[in-house]
Hints:
Distance between the termini: 32 Å
CATH class of the largest domain: Mainly Alpha
CATH architecture of the largest domain: Orthogonal Bundle
Order of helices and strands: EEHHHHHHHHHHHHH
Number of strands: 2
Shape: globular
Largest sheet: 2 strands, antiparallel
Number of domains: 2
Bound molecules: iron/sulfur cluster
Number of helices: 13
CATH superfamily of the largest domain: Helix-hairpin-Helix base-excision DNA repair enzymes (C-terminal)
Oligomer: single chain
Strand content: under 5%
Helix content: 40-55%
Radius of gyration: 19 Å
CATH topology of the largest domain: Endonuclease Iii, domain 2
Structural class: mainly alpha
Amino acid sequence: MANVLSNKKGLVPPQNLGAAALKLAIDGVPVAKAKAIAKAEPTSQKSRSGSTKKPLAPERVAAILDALRRTYPGVVCALNHKDAWELTVATILSAQCTDVRVNLVTPALFKAFPTPNAMAAASLPELEELIRTTGFFRNKAKSIKGAAQVVMDEFKGQVPQTMEEMLRLPGVARKTANVVLGSWYGIAVGVVVDTHVMRLSRRLELTKNIMPEKVEQDLIKIIPQNRWITFSHELIHHGRQICIARTPRCADCSLESLCNSGDKTWASH
Ligand code: SF4
């Protein structure tokens, strides 16, 4: 669940990118690479985004949801976990890192520190060493140790089940809270907005925003609440496999007939 543009509390647009690089970065290209590409390709593809007549028409949104459900039946969270605590830690580690990398790291981490109690008692250097390859490991070690301490001190060792309480955990913003509340507890209080959901929502003209909180609010308005959890899983899978950041595989896309993105690499209409 890589976030390219992020601070501790979520995605933010950097101040020092030009328009072309910023667009690439929002679409999921790492910032340094986006800058290099924009420099090398100053006349990048002109966007036709916004060319759908009524992009938020209920029948169009319903068709997108139907196509996603048919393409990814029974989709689940790609982060390996066996309880709410493991999912919380894995999601914190997934910031600016691939789920595949996180899944490589968490078995040894949870073997060494299997409970919030054990992780709260761990030293930061021990945690840092185990999560080093996920990037930003010092901040992430502080977050998971701090989250373990809050879970122990304030919630009797149980990951809380409300957004307000989840946001008390260090390193947990709305995205992580939505992942845990939705995927583990089955509580739909919002839509997970990671880099894939952001990029695809913009390409499909479901939002024009670039701030995750605003994108989430846009999606909440048009997606039925009983689809909030699965919709984000489906978009994340679609973003990884088909609608990838630089060269979307539009010829293989089940949403192609509904999509008028300027980023398309192939079009039937
Ligand atoms: S048609 Fe292309 S740009 Fe549109 S959603 Fe599919 S892969 Fe993405």
